[in-house]
Amino acid sequence: MPGPRKFVVVAVSVLSLVACCGLAYWQWQRFESANGTFQNLGYVLQWPLFGIAPAYMFWRMRKLAQQQPAEAPPAAEPPPPPPARPRPAAVDDEDDELTAYNRYLASLNAQEPR
Question: N or C: which end of the chain has fewer CB within 10 A?
Answer without folding.
Answer: C
